[in-house]
Recover the amino acids of this structure.
């Protein structure tokens, strides 16, 4: 009797705290002068993708927004926040699956009333959130996910993506291989068994077969995501004696694969093509064999152009976090600077904040400067970015990893034109001589 | 008033209240309640199994089949209304359980739990391999109408919510009546002593098989409703963590009333949403602590709070 009453009161206390305390937190006092622009930022803060992707992206958003709010941006980005309006960040964890993400998206849009959302590393989350963004009519910028299906299968008004689709990574990898390794004929792949890995391998295999019809596939290994142990797969790869081993591994899986393959000589006998290799180069400097082909999903990290904006971004990032920014941090910078450019263009000389529709109209088809160079919103009726991409080969000099034979591929060469699906485009446009 | 009628009346009143509240609720809350109802339907099936003495760690299997069936119904069979999609989801899940039940109904305790888990992980593996169904990225599912009402219209936008509430009402009243029926009363008897039930002349295996199918139909309907509310399906629905969450809801709620899973699922969804907002880095810790608190202070689940109060009043 007594215990049940205490339990009951304990519960009602906890519940009432839960229900009534939250709105109090939510209604923090507004800034004195201009209403801040509330920006929802969704990236992985927990789980396997948090370390290599989510947290660097969050860090990138934090330092960049802080600098912009302090009106410390260089060149065209010197204005405070967004056209003088400070930016207020609301972070949400991307972990938990698509149901949770759709639920959280509705929550930040409808309850916290954010003015725009930047987010999503997982392609599944991007696909799930896309129709909801249209339904809720909220400006949403996808910043990192790679699937080309979003703007190839649908048409959106409120949705933008400031990163090129993943097709580019594998088409450019195939172009680089055919150019740098004229004798390479036998290819093999090791990719994670989920949409990203399957699509990456399909694009690379198809591109290689178009560029070099004599290409022969010895094996395509598809271990599961996060497997960690690749002994059997490495044996299978080595058995076929391929000239090239393609992998779209990322994060801990990539580190584990490199650490297990190097002692067995697998990456010496065959040349590895690591399309997301850049994130691993920071930690595995002494391990990656010379000649390994490394990509960074665009001109990011070590491949970023030597321009003032890039030097500035690297400095503010390193001052706070010591490490250099990796490509998800660069992707985040692209999304924030794209929004800033569109917002300030929509505002023009007026002192009044532009409406969401005006920002969207200004966003469609623009070009803007980022630490990774110029981004153009060229596909999906001006909603999908294209950018150049870069590949190079690793060379360790005095214990430091450097890149040689760096080759830049202009955006138009590695991305399909607007309205053409990447799968069809690979088959027709890549043919030698075209 | 008989207890069965009291439960039915109570549920009908809740349904009516939910209908009246729908336009008053903020839109994010409408979505949250829909998801909570869909998950509670799966937990309702688990309640039936737990009363029979079985814990399934594989309800994600039927949940995923319901969700994918709704999606395939929209894409391949060109359903445009949500109602046939939910019916298809429930039927497909029931059919799979009918076949798998031939094997599953023979097992008990940990063997039953592990076997059901294995089946759901097989489906997960198959879905991840199938690029036609979008592999891990899944695909979008959308119904244009609910009961013939356009989802974009002012009334129609409550369609999926209303449909979920209706399915929940039918499911809860149905299970409540069933549990009070002759066959339903065998459930605790089977849990306590199977041998005696057999001596009484009832077939334990048939009853277990029937309960598996009933739980699967509920999970299938829950999956289809989730797919429609979220607008997207992916293989995560069949993953063991999803199944684990349903067990979590069932334990959090307790098995004493058919209304318990609905209260439990709603509290879990609210809790998680607020934890996400105020502790984006440590929300798992908050949810875990609440689970721990429930196990320590309310070992019979949240619903035992109401029951104890009623007993104290009597």
């Amino acid at each position: 009797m007594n215990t049940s009453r205490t339990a009951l009161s304990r519960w009602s206390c906890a519940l009432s705290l839960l229900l009534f305390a939250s709105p109090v937190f939510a209604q923090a006092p507004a800034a004195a002068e201009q209403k801040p622009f509330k920006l929802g930022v969704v990236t992985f803060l927990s789980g396997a993708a948090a370390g290599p992707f989510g947290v660097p992206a969050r860090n990138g958003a934090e330092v960049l927004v802080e600098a912009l709010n302090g009106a410390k941006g260089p060149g065209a980005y010197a204005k405070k926040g967004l056209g003088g309006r400070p930016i207020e960040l609301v972070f949400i964890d991307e972990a938990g699956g698509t149901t949770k993400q759709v639920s959280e998206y509705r929550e930040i849009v409808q309850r916290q009333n954010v003015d725009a959302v930047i987010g999503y590393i997982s392609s599944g989350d991007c696909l799930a959130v896309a129709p909801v963004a249209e339904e809720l009519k909220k400006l949403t910028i996808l910043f990192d996910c790679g699937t080309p299906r979003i703007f190839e299968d649908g048409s959106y008004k409120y949705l933008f993506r400031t990163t090129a689709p993943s097709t580019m990574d594998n088409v450019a990898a195939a172009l680089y291989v055919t150019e740098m390794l004229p004798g390479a004929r036998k290819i093999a792949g090791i990719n994670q068994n989920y949409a990203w890995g399957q699509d990456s391998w399909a694009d690379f295999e198809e591109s290689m077969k178009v560029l070099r019809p004599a290409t022969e596939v010895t094996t395509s290994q598809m271990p599961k995501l996060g497997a960690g142990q690749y002994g059997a797969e490495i044996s299978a790869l080595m058995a076929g004696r391929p000239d090239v081993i393609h992998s779209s591994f990322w994060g801990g899986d990539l580190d584990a694969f490199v650490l297990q393959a190097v002692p067995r000589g697998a990456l010496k006998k065959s040349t590895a093509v690591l399309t997301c290799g850049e994130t691993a180069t920071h930690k595995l400097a002494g391990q990656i064999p010379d000649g390994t082909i490394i990509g960074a999903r665009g001109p990011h990290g070590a491949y970023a152009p030597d321009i003032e904006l890039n030097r500035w971004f690297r400095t503010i990032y390193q001052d706070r976090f010591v490490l250099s920014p990796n490509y998800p941090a660069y992707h985040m910078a692209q999304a924030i600077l794209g929004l800033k450019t569109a917002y300030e263009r929509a505002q023009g000389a007026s002192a009044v904040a532009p409406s969401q529709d005006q920002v969207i109209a200004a966003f469609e088809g623009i070009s803007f400067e980022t630490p990774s160079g110029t981004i153009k919103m060229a596909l999906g009726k001006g909603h999908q970015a294209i950018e150049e991409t870069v590949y190079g080969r690793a060379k360790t000099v005095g214990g430091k990893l450097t890149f040689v034979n760096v080759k830049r591929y202009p955006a138009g060469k590695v991305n399909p034109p607007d309205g053409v699906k990447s799968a069809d485009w690979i088959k027709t446009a890549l043919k030698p001589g075209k | 008033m008989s207890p069965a009628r009291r439960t039915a009346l109570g549920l009908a009143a809740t349904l009516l209240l939910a209908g009246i509240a729908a336009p008053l609720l903020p839109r994010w809350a409408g979505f949250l309640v829909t998801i909570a109802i869909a998950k509670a339907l799966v937990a309702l099936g688990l309640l039936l199994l737990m009363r029979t003495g079985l814990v399934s760690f594989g309800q994600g299997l039927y949940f995923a089949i319901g969700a994918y069936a709704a999606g395939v119904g929209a894409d391949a069979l060109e359903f445009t209304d949500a109602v046939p999609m939910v019916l298809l989801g429930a039927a497909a899940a029931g059919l799979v359980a009918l076949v798998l039940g031939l094997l599953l109904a023979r097992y008990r305790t940990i063997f039953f739990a592990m076997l059901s888990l294995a089946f759901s992980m097989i489906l997960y593996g198959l879905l991840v391999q199938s690029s036609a169904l979008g592999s891990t990225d899944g695909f979008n599912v959308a119904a244009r109408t609910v009961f013939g009402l356009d989802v974009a219209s002012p009334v129609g936008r409550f369609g999926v919510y209303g449909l979920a509430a209706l399915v929940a009402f039918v499911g809860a009243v149905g299970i409540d009546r069933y549990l009070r029926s002759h066959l339903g009363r065998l459930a605790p008897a089977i849990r306590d002593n199977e041998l005696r039930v057999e001596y009484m002349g009832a077939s334990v295996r048939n009853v277990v098989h029937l309960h598996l199918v009933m739980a699967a139909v509920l999970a299938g309907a829950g999956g289809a409703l989730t797919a429609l509310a979220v607008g997207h399906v992916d293989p995560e629905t069949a993953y063991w963590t999803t199944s684990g969450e349903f067990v979590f809801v069932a334990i959090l709620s307790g098995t004493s009333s058919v209304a318990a899973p609905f209260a439990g699922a709603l509290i879990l969804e609210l809790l998680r949403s607020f934890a996400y907002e105020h502790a984006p880095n440590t929300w798992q810790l908050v949810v875990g602590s609440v689970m721990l608190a429930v196990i320590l202070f309310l070992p019979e689940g949240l619903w035992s709070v109401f029951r104890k109060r009623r007993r104290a009043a009597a």
